[in-house]
Protein backbone atom coordinates (compact mmCIF):
# COMPACT_ATOMS: atom_id res chain seq x y z
CA UNK A 1 0.00 0.00 0.00
CA UNK A 2 1.33 3.44 -0.91
CA UNK A 3 0.94 6.30 1.53
CA UNK A 4 -0.17 9.57 -0.03
CA UNK A 5 1.32 12.98 0.61
CA UNK A 6 -1.96 14.09 2.20
CA UNK A 7 -1.82 11.19 4.66
CA UNK A 8 1.74 12.11 5.65
CA UNK A 9 0.70 15.73 6.09
CA UNK A 10 -2.14 14.61 8.39
CA UNK A 11 0.32 12.59 10.46
CA UNK A 12 2.65 15.59 10.59
CA UNK A 13 -0.13 17.91 11.76
CA UNK A 14 -1.34 15.39 14.34
CA UNK A 15 2.22 15.23 15.71
CA UNK A 16 2.36 19.05 15.77
CA UNK A 17 5.38 19.03 13.43
CA UNK A 18 7.49 17.23 16.04
CA UNK A 19 9.32 13.92 16.04
CA UNK A 20 7.09 11.19 17.48
CA UNK A 21 10.01 9.65 19.40
CA UNK A 22 12.00 12.65 20.63
CA UNK A 23 9.65 15.62 20.45
CA UNK A 24 12.28 17.53 18.47
CA UNK A 25 11.01 19.81 15.69
CA UNK A 26 10.88 18.11 12.29
CA UNK A 27 12.47 19.74 9.26
CA UNK A 28 12.04 18.67 5.63
CA UNK A 29 15.72 17.72 5.44
CA UNK A 30 15.61 15.57 8.59
CA UNK A 31 12.22 13.84 8.48
CA UNK A 32 11.85 10.08 8.12
CA UNK A 33 8.90 7.67 8.17
CA UNK A 34 9.06 5.12 10.98
CA UNK A 35 6.99 1.97 11.38
CA UNK A 36 5.78 1.42 14.96
CA UNK A 37 5.89 -2.30 14.22
CA UNK A 38 8.78 -2.70 11.76
CA UNK A 39 8.11 -4.41 8.45
CA UNK A 40 10.78 -6.97 9.34
CA UNK A 41 8.70 -7.92 12.40
CA UNK A 42 5.36 -8.26 10.66
CA UNK A 43 4.32 -4.60 10.55
CA UNK A 44 2.32 -3.12 7.72
CA UNK A 45 2.48 -0.04 5.51
CA UNK A 46 -0.88 1.01 6.93
CA UNK A 47 -1.09 4.67 8.03
CA UNK A 48 -1.90 3.59 11.61
CA UNK A 49 1.55 1.93 11.78
CA UNK A 50 3.45 5.02 10.57
CA UNK A 51 4.94 7.94 12.47
CA UNK A 52 7.23 10.75 11.37
CA UNK A 53 10.54 10.96 13.21
CA UNK A 54 13.99 12.47 12.75
CA UNK A 55 16.45 10.45 10.69
CA UNK A 56 18.70 9.96 13.72
CA UNK A 57 15.84 8.61 15.81
CA UNK A 58 14.73 6.27 13.02
CA UNK A 59 18.29 5.00 12.56
CA UNK A 60 18.68 4.45 16.31
CA UNK A 61 15.33 2.66 16.65
CA UNK A 62 16.21 0.38 13.74
CA UNK A 63 13.88 -2.65 13.82
CA UNK A 64 12.93 -2.41 17.49
CA UNK A 65 9.36 -2.15 18.63
CA UNK A 66 8.46 1.18 20.23
CA UNK A 67 8.45 -0.22 23.77
CA UNK A 68 11.79 -1.98 23.24
CA UNK A 69 13.35 1.26 22.01
CA UNK A 70 11.96 3.26 24.93
CA UNK A 71 13.34 0.66 27.38
CA UNK A 72 16.75 0.79 25.63
CA UNK A 73 16.77 4.58 25.96
CA UNK A 74 15.83 4.38 29.64
CA UNK A 75 18.74 1.99 30.21
CA UNK A 76 21.15 4.25 28.29
CA UNK A 77 20.10 7.33 30.29
CA UNK A 78 20.35 5.44 33.60
CA UNK A 79 23.83 4.16 32.72
CA UNK A 80 24.93 7.65 31.65
CA UNK A 81 23.81 9.00 35.04
CA UNK A 82 25.67 6.22 36.87
CA UNK A 83 28.79 6.88 34.79
CA UNK A 84 28.69 10.61 35.57
CA UNK A 85 28.27 9.91 39.30
CA UNK A 86 31.27 7.53 39.30
CA UNK A 87 33.32 10.03 37.31
CA UNK A 88 33.07 12.81 39.92
CA UNK A 89 36.32 13.31 41.79
CA UNK A 90 38.31 10.88 39.67
CA UNK A 91 41.37 12.03 37.73
CA UNK A 92 40.63 12.74 34.09
CA UNK A 93 41.61 10.12 31.58
CA UNK A 94 42.65 10.84 28.08
CA UNK A 95 39.48 11.59 26.08
CA UNK A 96 38.23 9.13 23.50
CA UNK A 97 38.61 9.89 19.83
CA UNK A 98 36.18 12.73 19.12
CA UNK A 99 34.06 11.15 16.35
CA UNK A 100 33.27 8.09 18.50
CA UNK A 101 32.66 10.17 21.62
CA UNK A 102 30.45 12.55 19.67
CA UNK A 103 28.33 9.67 18.34
CA UNK A 104 27.97 8.33 21.90
CA UNK A 105 27.03 11.78 23.20
CA UNK A 106 24.53 12.20 20.36
CA UNK A 107 22.93 8.84 21.14
CA UNK A 108 22.70 9.65 24.85
CA UNK A 109 21.14 13.01 23.99
CA UNK A 110 18.64 11.33 21.67
CA UNK A 111 17.77 8.81 24.39
CA UNK A 112 17.30 11.60 26.93
CA UNK A 113 14.83 13.24 24.54
CA UNK A 114 13.01 9.93 23.99
CA UNK A 115 12.70 9.38 27.76
CA UNK A 116 11.45 12.95 28.26
CA UNK A 117 8.94 12.60 25.42
CA UNK A 118 7.84 9.25 26.85
CA UNK A 119 7.16 10.88 30.20
CA UNK A 120 5.29 13.68 28.48
CA UNK A 121 3.10 11.18 26.61
CA UNK A 122 2.94 8.88 29.64
CA UNK A 123 3.67 5.60 27.86
CA UNK A 124 3.39 2.60 30.10
CA UNK A 125 6.40 0.44 30.91
Kindly state the percentage of residues in helix.
40-55%
Radius of gyration: 17 Å
Content of β-strand: 5-15%
The averaged pLDDT comes out at 88
- How many alpha or pi helices? 4
* Overall geometry: elongated
**Helix-strand makeup class:** mainly alpha
Instruction: Characterize the biggest β-sheet.
Output: 2 strands, antiparallel
List the helices and strands and how they pair.
Elements: H1 5-14, E1 31-35, E2 50-54, H2 55-61, H3 66-87, H4 98-121
Antiparallel strand pairs: 1-2
Helix pairs in contact: 3-4
Summary keywords:
elongated, 2 strands, 125 residues, 4 helices, two-stranded antiparallel ribbon, mainly alpha
What's this model, at a glance?
By secondary structure, the chain is mainly α. The protein has one domain.
Describe this structure in words.
The chain has helices at residues 5-14, 55-61, 66-87, 98-121, and strands at residues 31-35, 50-54. It is built from four helices and two strands, in the order H-E-E-H-H-H. The mean pLDDT is 88. It starts with a helix and ends with a helix.
Amino acid sequence: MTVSRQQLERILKAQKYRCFLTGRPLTPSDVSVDHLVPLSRGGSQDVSNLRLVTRGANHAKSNLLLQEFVELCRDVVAEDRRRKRRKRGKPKRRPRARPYAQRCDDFVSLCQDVVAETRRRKYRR
